[in-house]
Specification:
Helices cover about 50% and strands about 15% of the residues. It is α+β, with helices and mostly antiparallel strands and about 130 residues long. The chain has a single domain, classed as K homology (KH) domain (GMP Synthetase, Chain A, domain 3), CATH 3.30.300.20. It is found in: Cytoplasm.
Length: about 130
C-alpha cells in the first residue's frame, strides 16, 4: 500500500479518535478530554494501529488514561469501522507518549539556565566596571 494512503489512514484515525475523546464518547472514567494524540502508526496491511497518547497529566494519571483507552479499544475500533472507508479496521493499541511532559521539563530547565546566566556576576560585561 502506498505511503500516501497510510498517511491518509493515520490522519483519519487521529481525527476520529480525537473527536471521540474530546466529545466524551468514551465512557471510561479514566479517559478525559485533556488527552492528546501525538502520533499514529498503522501497519502496511492496515491490520494494526499504534496510537501514542500524551497529556499534561501526572505520570500515574496518564498511565491510567492509556489503560482506559486500551480497555475501550473495541468500542473505538467499531466507531472507526463505521466512519472510515477501508476494507479492514485496524486493531488498536494505545501507548503513552511522554514527549509533551519531557519537552516541558527541558523548556523549564532552559529557562532556569537563562535566568542564571542573566544574573549579574563578576564576569558580566554589562556591569559598572566595564570600559568603553
Amino acid at each position: 500500500m502506498g505511503n500516501f494512503r497510510l498517511q491518509k489512514v493515520e490522519h483519519q484515525i487521529t481525527q476520529i479518535v480525537s473527536e471521540l475523546i474530546l466529545k466524551g464518547e468514551i465512557k471510561d472514567h479514566r479517559v478525559n478530554s485533556m488527552l492528546s494524540i501525538s502520533a499514529v502508526e498503522v501497519s502496511r496491511d492496515l491490520a494494526y494501529a499504534r496510537i501514542h497518547i500524551s497529556a499534561f497529566l501526572k505520570d500515574r494519571e496518564l498511565g491510567e488514561a492509556v489503560e482506559g483507552l486500551n480497555s475501550a479499544a473495541g468500542f473505538i475500533q467499531r466507531q472507526l469501522g463505521k466512519r472510515m472507508r477501508t476494507r479492514n479496521t485496524p486493531k488498536l493499541t494505545f501507548v503513552r507518549d511522554d514527549g509533551i511532559s519531557k519537552g516541558f521539563e527541558v523548556t523549564q530547565k532552559l529557562k532556569e539556565l537563562n535566568v542564571q546566566q542573566q544574573e549579574p556576576g563578576e564576569d558580566d560585561p554589562s556591569g559598572s566596571d566595564s570600559h568603553t
